[in-house]
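Support request, please re-run this one:
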Amino acid sequence: MRVVHESDGRSETLANDVETADSFLSQAKGLMFRRSIPDDYALAFRFDDVDARDVHMVFVPFPLDGVWAVDGEVQRVKRLSAWTGLGKAEADTLFELPAGSASDVSVGDTVRLVE
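Re-run finished. Output below.
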């Protein structure tokens, strides 16, 4: 599985090492208590509906890029600082990536999981 970013007819892979957080427990834990993640990694949270989805960085000692999407269309992109970062937006899919991975992603672009 990959995370793919599409914009202006261009397509780029943001991550090839993708883990999904589909259960309540895996979604609640997220990336807490990990020391680091690989450069080519993403954690994808898939939800059954669109709702306000929040991210906190408590017990996450490294910065992340958060990408909130509805039907693949990016709603928000935010750099989240280690330990204290917070973010919230409407989404049916939320991606957490290493800081800098989503630097070229903008609201209105497409970011999606590809099997």
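The mean pLDDT is 97. The CA atoms of residues 43 and 54 lie 14 Å apart.
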